[in-house]
Amino acid sequence: QVQLVESGGGLVQPGGSLRLSCAASADTFGTYAMGWFRQAPGKEREFVASISRSGGSTSYADSLKGRFTISRVYAKNTVDLQMNSLKPEETAVYYCAARRTPRVRATASGADDYPYWGQGTQVTVST
């Protein structure tokens, strides 16, 4: 089992950047594919990005390609989400998620694919 703790959220102006980080407790961090999701008030949780066990495969929501980058640092057991050119409609609670998988290159975009979740970190994009 893995515990996840997100950090890095806050208030940013439209067009600005923010970097989120997720720290994983598991010694077997390399056996987990990781994902980021977000949930705005009154809306369903939506997929943001995913990275494979190997770190060699990534996937993104179509609306985010080119602005967001997911990465993982095995030495620190962390997965980061770099967010650029943020928009007010991207205000949401951002969640880190993990799924243990034997597939080294697999990513996943469904929330139901991930059994482990962090508590979330608030990102507010506003003037």
Structural class: mainly beta
**Strand percent estimate:** over 45%
Low-confidence stretches: none
Which sheet architecture does the biggest sheet show?
7 strands, mixed
Distance between the termini: 40 Å
In percent, how helical is the residue content?
A: under 10%
**Number of alpha- plus pi-helical segments:** 0
The secondary-structure element order is EEEEEEEEEEE
Radius of gyration: 14 Å
Count the beta strands.
11
Inertia-based shape? globular
Mean pLDDT: 95
Features:
127 residues; mainly beta; seven-stranded mixed sheet; 11 strands; 46% strand; globular
Quick overview:
The protein is an all-beta fold and 127 residues long.
Could you give the topology of this structure?
Elements: E1 4-7, E2 10-12, E3 18-24, E4 32-39, E5 46-51, E6 58-60, E7 68-73, E8 78-83, E9 92-100, E10 116-117, E11 121-125
Parallel strand pairs: 2-11
Antiparallel strand pairs: 1-3, 3-8, 4-5, 4-9, 5-6, 7-8, 9-10, 9-11
What does this structure look like?
The protein is mainly beta. The chain is built from no helices and eleven strands. Strands 2, 4, 5, 6, 9, 10 and 11 form a seven-stranded mixed sheet that branches. Strands 1-3-8-7 form a four-stranded antiparallel sheet, with no helix packed on it. The protein is globular, with a radius of gyration of 14 Å.
